[in-house]
Amino acid sequence: MKNGNGIAEKSKASCAMYLRAVHDSLDILGGKWKISIIGALKFGNRRFKELQREVNGITAKMLSKELKELEINELVKRTVFDSKPVTVEYELTAYGKTLDGVLESLMTWGIQHRKRIMVKK
Amino acid sequence: MKNGNGIAEKSKASCAMYLRAVHDSLDILGGKWKISIIGALKFGNRRFKELQREVNGITAKMLSKELKELEINELVKRTVFDSKPVTVEYELTAYGKTLDGVLESLMTWGIQHRKRIMVKK
To answer: How far apart are CA A26 and CA B101, in angstroms?
Structure first.
């Protein structure tokens, strides 16, 4: 510790609080798949196969695992329809929709990042 | 494909664009460490050891790897000071600071998520 004055301590405390909050989010959204799955569901309900097509590169096993975790955290709802053959649909819950700000900020940054790289090339 | 009408196709195209942008961001920020490191640097320049203390649970090897990747992507700048002993400091570049919106949204969501869980317990 470089010093013990009030401002430095306060800044250290808010940094820790800030990092804890960011960490809490990443605990739930960890890895790249969950955010992509939520992103796809933003555009409407999807069946398993549709999600697998849209979330590029994900395996069926991984998609199934990720969807289960999203369900446990109440971000995604799974509905089974009694059709023939049985169909299963996934949708964002109201709570899942509260992630909209996170997704928007990632999208906005991703767009400008791609532009920046293109200019450099 | 359920139908081939214009609206559905358009929605599919914007979904793909949206997911690509989110994916681009996650490619750069992948995993939980990079975002936490950037979060810590938001509060001021840090030495390696300081970062390791603040980013809970990261090993020295992993921190070094992550910092190198952040440097390559021009989000973090590393400065060596010719002191005795030599000190190395890390700081966010101007480009790194453009991630502020992403971090803010993750922090905001993390705070309300913790509150939600507390109420449930």
So the answer is: 15
In this complex, which of A19, A25, A44 lies closest to B113 when CB atoms are compared? A25
Q: Which two tokens stand for residue B2?
A: 């359920």
Which positions in chain A touch B108 (Cβ < 8 Å)?
21, 101
For residue B101, give the nearest of A11, A102, A18 by alpha carbon. A102
Predicted complex ipTM: 0.85
E strand or H helix that includes residue A3: none
CB contact under 8 A, A102 and B110: no
Residue A6 CB neighbour total at 10 angstroms: 8
Q: A105 and B107 in contact by Cβ < 8 A?
A: no
Q: Read off the pLDDT of residues A32-48 as tens digits, 9 standing for 90 and up.
A: 699 999 999 999 999 99
Q: Prior bond to A85 cis, omega within 30?
A: yes
3-class DSSP state of A15: helix
Q: How close, in Å, is residue A1 to chain B by CA atoms?
A: 9
